[in-house]
Specification:
By secondary structure, the protein is mainly α. The protein is built from three helices and no strands. It has one domain.
Length: about 80
């Protein structure tokens, strides 16, 4: 999927050869940048959540009740994402 997105971007955004083309690329970038920032913040929060769960998981003894509860918290968001 990402490969095709990558290819489509290169087809749409060719080498800049004029001032007008540069202005259009910049306008497109600025239009989408806010959405990018929002998505980046969401990914960062999810990443931090998984880092915290992994840290908790490493502190628990494998097979213990606390380990199992932490594992459920660890797996549940993954199932939601997939």
């Amino acid at each position: 999927m990402y490969f095709f997105l990558y290819l489509s971007i290169f087809r749409e955004y060719t080498k800049i050869e004029s001032g007008e083309q540069r202005r259009q690329y910049k306008a497109d970038f600025n239009k989408d940048y806010r959405e990018y920032q929002t998505l980046h913040q969401m990914v960062e929060r999810v990443s931090q959540h998984f880092e915290q769960l992994e840290k908790r998981l490493r502190q628990e003894k494998e097979g213990s009740d606390a380990y199992k509860v932490t594992m459920v918290h660890f797996i549940s968001p993954v199932q939601f994402i997939v």
